[in-house]
Specification:
The complex is a heterodimer of chains A (351) and B (68). Chain A is an alpha+beta fold. Chain A contains 10 helices and 9 strands. In chain A, 60% of the residues lie in helices and 13% in strands. In chain A, helix 5 (151-171) packs across helix 10, helix 7 packs antiparallel against helix 9 and helix 9 packs antiparallel against helix 10 (297-341). In chain B, 88% of the residues lie in helices and 0% in strands. Chain B has helices spanning 3-34, 39-66. The chains are: A alpha+beta (351), B mainly alpha (68). At the A-B interface, helix 9 and helix 10 of A face helix 2 of B.
């Protein structure tokens, strides 16, 4: 953990940052929001401005970069940029928390395999889940056949909910083989959603990242189609009881449906979590817009007065959404798998 | 979220999804009022339908990010 210990560093306010002040306030706020929602190579926690000095509090994260041009691997901590001359290290520099090529200023000349803030958050989530589940497992080993206690009882509520309300009604008697995936999916989405809601943990937004949801959706896509039985494929390529000429229209639609189902799963989780983060930050940004970036204290106080209750409400709603989206993703995956493995005894009646 | 055109798009998607979820909610409450013993099944179906409708609004929002 020493590796990720907080680093403090100060830097002079550059003329460019001075210019930013004169810009439209809301565009500054929007830029901050978009930087938050995007991934970053360091875990930025706060910037404290004291006159000319800016103190950045951030957690350095390892950068693993592969240059396409030279084929060289560069491995270093993101904190090197703060001490490097001109902020350039091994041909890379940092812009808004993102590593970019120092010459071209964009990201298409190298591959980024870094432990970014979202990856770090995922690993944090893994660790928490592992600790929780191993603790619960130990409790079952120690007190077999007895009533659950403490954390064990808390987790049992969730697992029983997934088993009884999601897996059994949708998957029928084959539910046991899919239960590990469904439970893993539910808790992994849930822990990432919840970690994203903790302020000052470092602008984490991993379940609001489209690559995160893409991977989960691809897992579901593979699971649905690998387990799909004869009836499932028959309903896609030769829907029973439909005239031949209708199949010309129906088959492309059904084939598209294979991909659309997980694609919507992917977009729903991404959109909900990103949308929630943007909403929370936009309401918090009201303080800075009304306070004109710290020049009007009265405006900032009024903005804070308006923002506080609204923010409290939206945060509470996002807490609910964190659970709801984990539930919906798991439920829909279970329904799609259930539809793919279902045995049709009267194929003619189904469409 | 650049420019007024995508903002109008998000608004339209939100109207459509709002109408849809409103209908689902009102009919679910009516169903529960008539048959309180079916609450559990109605709740499950309601959340599923709401999630599907909400997907439309979310797709609208995601597209507004993409369209500049």
């Amino acid at each position: 953990m020493l590796l990720f210990s907080l680093s403090l560093h100060a830097e002079e306010a550059t003329p460019a940052q001075e210019c930013e002040k004169k810009e439209d306030v809301s565009s500054v706020v929007v830029e901050h929001i978009m930087n938050h929602v995007a991934d970053a190579n360091e875990n930025h926690i706060a910037t404290i401005k004291d006159g000319e000095h800016e103190t950045h509090i951030s957690m350095p994260l390892p950068c693993i970069l592969y240059s396409k041009a030279t084929g060289n691997w560069s491995v270093f901590m993101s904190s090197v940029f703060h001490h490097a001359p001109n902020g350039i290290h091994e041909g890379y520099k940092m812009e808004h928390g993102r590593v970019v090529d120092a010459q071209t200023g964009n990201r298409d000349t190298f591959f980024d395999f870094s432990i970014t803030k979202n990856v770090f958050n995922m690993l944090l989530g893994f660790t928490i889940l592992a600790i929780v589940f191993f603790t619960v497992k130990k409790a079952y080993d120690k007190r077999p056949g007895q009533a659950p206690r403490g954390l064990q009882g808390f987790m049992e509520v969730f697992i029983e909910f997934i088993t009884e309300d999601i897996a059994k009604p949708n998957l029928g008697n084959k539910y046991e083989s899919f239960l590990p995936y469904l439970i893993g999916l539910f808790f992994f989405i849930l822990i990432n959603n919840l970690l994203g809601l903790i302020p000052f943990l470092g602008n984490i937004n991993s379940s609001g990242n489209i690559s995160f949801t893409l991977v989960l959706a691809v897992f579901s896509l593979i699971l649905i189609n690998v387990n799909g039985n004869k009836d499932y494929w028959k309903h896609i390529f030769a829907m029973p009881g439909v005239p031949k000429w209708v199949l010309i229209i129906l088959v492309p639609v059904e084939v598209m449906g294979i991909l659309i189902k997980p694609a919507v799963l992917m977009l729903r989780l991404f959109g909900n979590i990103t949308g929630g983060h943007i909403t929370i930050l936009a309401i918090a940004g009201l303080i800075f817009i009304m306070g004109n970036l710290g020049t009007s204290v009265g405006g900032a106080a009024a903005g804070g007065l308006i923002a506080f209750p609204v923010l409290l409400f939206v945060n509470a709603m996002e807490l609910f959404v964190a659970f709801l989206q984990a539930y919906v993703f798991t439920l829909l995956t279970a329904i799609f798998i259930g539809a793919a493995i279902e045995e049709h005894h009267h194929a003619e009646e189904h469409h | 979220m650049t420019g007024p055109v995508s903002a109008i798009g998000v608004g339209l998607a939100a109207i459509a999804a709002g109408l849809g979820i409103g209908l689902i909610g009102s009919n679910a409450v009516q169903g529960i009022a008539r048959q309180p013993e079916a609450t559990k099944q109605i709740n499950g179906a309601m959340i599923l339908a709401a999630a599907l409708v909400e997907g439309v609004a979310i797709i609208g929002m995601v597209l507004s990010f993409l369209i500049k």
